[in-house]
């Protein structure tokens, strides 16, 4: 080789440089003889570059030896290839392990998703796992839509607009109106926040609390309404079940509270303990 590569040992305990024949670290006393954790360091120095033919010292930028005229380019290329292959061989097991872990996590996530969709499909009388493509399902969210398309979504569920069972699509729906509802409520909440914090209008606080509380629930409600493939439930029925069902759930919760006693910490700080949550 025209480039002399100096190999130095590094102590795995303190990181001090060791000599080739050292059996113990002169800095910390760690045994380095036949220690697989002992690291090696490759030093490249322009002063150590020698001609492989006559062994005369040459400069870093020299393409030919000034003593014997030997070409130094090909030898340097071979030396770099050997160093690169040595580095790759050391990192190859780590790359393979990381790739295997990534594949295993992906397979576990896919298996969990298939089991979940299969359980949901079993409730509808289907024992097969559902083939759901989330990217395809939300593909209409970022596309432009007209007001007439939105009206077609909200008029579903009436006697005249409910499709026959044979006309129901077997593909997953592509909801998009829920994103517009989320955006509209978000803009409303931001406007109320500006009224409250910039213009010091305290009358906007109740509206900000109300809109902020409905931002995600209403958007999720519209999402499931759009996802109904049978189109047999009207928006009126959905809103009625949402509000009346929500109030009834609060009433039933308050009734159950009469039979359950929570911890003192929950009464003082308003934070439920693990026992309270279990109850």
Structural overview:
Keywords: Membrane, Transmembrane, Transmembrane helix. The chain crosses the membrane at residues 181-199, 205-226, 238-260. Residues 11-69 form the DZANK-type domain. This is DZANK-type domain-containing protein. The chain is mostly helical. It folds into two domains: 3-71, no CATH class; 134-278, no CATH class. It is built from eight helices and three strands. It has helices at 73-123, 134-137, 147-154, 177-197, 204-227, 235-257, 264-269, 274-278, and strands at 3-10, 17-18, 39-49. It has a three-stranded antiparallel sheet with strand order 2-1-3. A hairpin with a 6-residue loop joins strand 1 (3-10) and strand 2 (17-18). The chain is elongated, with a radius of gyration of 36 Å.
Number of domains: 2
The percent range for helix content is 40-55%
Determine the number of helices (DSSP H or I, runs of at least 4 residues).
8
Q: List SSEs in N-to-C order.
A: EEEHHHHHHHH
Average pLDDT for all residues: 77
Q: Order of strands across the biggest sheet?
A: 2-1-3
How many beta-strand runs? 3
Rg computed from alpha carbons, rounded to a whole number of angstroms? 36 Å
Q: Any low-confidence stretches, pLDDT <50, length ≥5?
A: 1-6, 36-47
Distance between the terminal alpha carbons, to the nearest Å? 76 Å
Name the beta content range: 5-15%
Structural class category:
mainly alpha
Largest sheet: 3 strands, antiparallel
Overall, the morphology is elongated
């Amino acid at each position: 080789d025209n480039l002399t590569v100096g190999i130095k040992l590094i102590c795995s305990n303190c990181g001090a440089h060791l000599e080739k024949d050292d059996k113990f670290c002169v800095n910390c006393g760690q045994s380095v003889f036949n220690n697989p954790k002992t690291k090696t360091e490759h030093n490249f120095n322009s002063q150590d570059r020698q001609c492989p033919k006559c062994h005369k010292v040459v400069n870093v930028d020299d393409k030919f030896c000034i003593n014997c005229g030997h070409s130094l380019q090909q030898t340097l290329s071979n030396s770099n290839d050997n160093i690169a292959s040595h580095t790759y061989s050391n990192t190859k097991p780590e790359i393979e392990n990381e790739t295997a872990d990534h594949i295993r996590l992906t397979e576990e996530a896919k298996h969990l998703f298939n089991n979940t969709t299969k359980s949901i499909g079993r409730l509808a009388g289907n024992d097969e796992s559902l083939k759901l493509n989330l990217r395809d399902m939300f593909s209409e969210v970022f596309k432009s839509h007209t007001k007439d398309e939105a009206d077609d979504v909200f008029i579903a569920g009436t006697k005249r607009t409910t499709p026959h069972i044979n006309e129901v699509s077997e593909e997953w729906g592509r909801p998009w109106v829920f994103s517009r509802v989320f955006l509209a409520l978000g803009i409303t909440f931001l406007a109320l926040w500006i009224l409250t914090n910039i213009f010091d209008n305290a009358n906007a606080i109740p509206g900000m609390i109300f809109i902020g509380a409905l931002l995600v629930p209403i958007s999720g409600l519209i999402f499931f309404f759009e996802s109904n493939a049978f189109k047999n439930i009207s928006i009126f029925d959905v809103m009625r079940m949402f509000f009346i069902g929500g109030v009834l759930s609060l009433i039933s919760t308050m009734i159950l509270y009469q039979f359950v006693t929570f911890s003192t910490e929950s009464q003082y700080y308003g934070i439920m303990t693990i026992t309270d949550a279990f109850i």
